[in-house]
Write a structure and sequence with these properties.
The chain is of the alpha/beta class. The protein has 3 helices and 8 strands. The protein has a single domain, classed as Cytidine Deaminase, domain 2. Strand 4, helix 3 and strand 5 form a beta-alpha-beta unit. It is globular and about 35 Å long. InterPro entries: JAB_dom_prok, JAMM/MPN+_dom, Metalloprotease_DSAMP, MPN, VirAsm_ModProt.
Length: about 140
C-alpha cells in the first residue's frame, strides 16, 4: 500500500498539471513500515530529461543521486517514484516496465485534468503489481 500525506498528494497533482503535455517525474520520500506499507510525507520534483518527454520520463542519474542524498540527510528513505501520463492511460506502459529498476518500490502514476487520478504499482523486478493508494489524515 502507498499512503500519502495530503501535501504530498497535492504536490504530485500540482506538478503533473504544471507539466502540460510533457510527463513530469520525481522521487517519493518517507518510510516503509514493517508490513511493507510505503508512507510518503515528501515529494521531490526532478527534471524530465527523456528524449521524448511527451511519452517518456527519465531522471538524470546525477540529479537522482542528489535527491536521494537530500532525502537520506533529512532522515527519510526513498519509497518510490512518480511520473505523469498527461494523455493517459492511468497504468504503467511497456516503456515504464522496461525502465523500472527498483524492485519492491512504488511507482505512482498521475493523470492530471478535471478528474485527476493517482494510482500506484510495486515493481517486482519482472512486472508491476497494483497497490492500494490512501491519503493519510493530517
Amino acid at each position: 500500500m502507498l499512503v500519502l500525506s495530503r501535501a504530498a498528494y497535492d504536490e504530485i497533482l500540482t506538478h503533473a498539471e504544471a507539466g502540460g503535455a510533457a510527463e513530469v517525474c520525481g522521487v517519493l520520500a518517507g518510510e516503509r513500515t514493517d508490513d511493507g506499507t510505503a508512507r510518503v510525507d515528501a515529494v521531490h520534483r526532478a527534471e524530465n530529461v527523456a528524449d521524448h518527454p511527451r511519452t517518456r520520463y527519465r531522471i538524470d542519474p546525477e540529479e537522482q543521486l542528489a535527491i536521494i542524498e537530500r532525502i537520506e540527510d533529512a532522515g527519510r528513505e526513498v519509497v518510490g517514484f512518480y511520473h505523469s501520463h498527461p494523455e493517459g492511460p492511468p497504468v504503467p506502459s511497456r516503456t515504464d516496465a522496461e525502465r523500472a529498476a527498483w524492485p519492491g518500490y512504488s511507482y505512482a502514476i498521475c493523470v492530471p485534468g478535471d478528474r485527476p487520478y493517482l494510482g500506484s504499482w510495486r515493481w517486482t523486478g519482472e512486472q508491476f503489481d497494483r497497490e492500494a493508494v490512501a491519503l493519510r489524515p493530517e
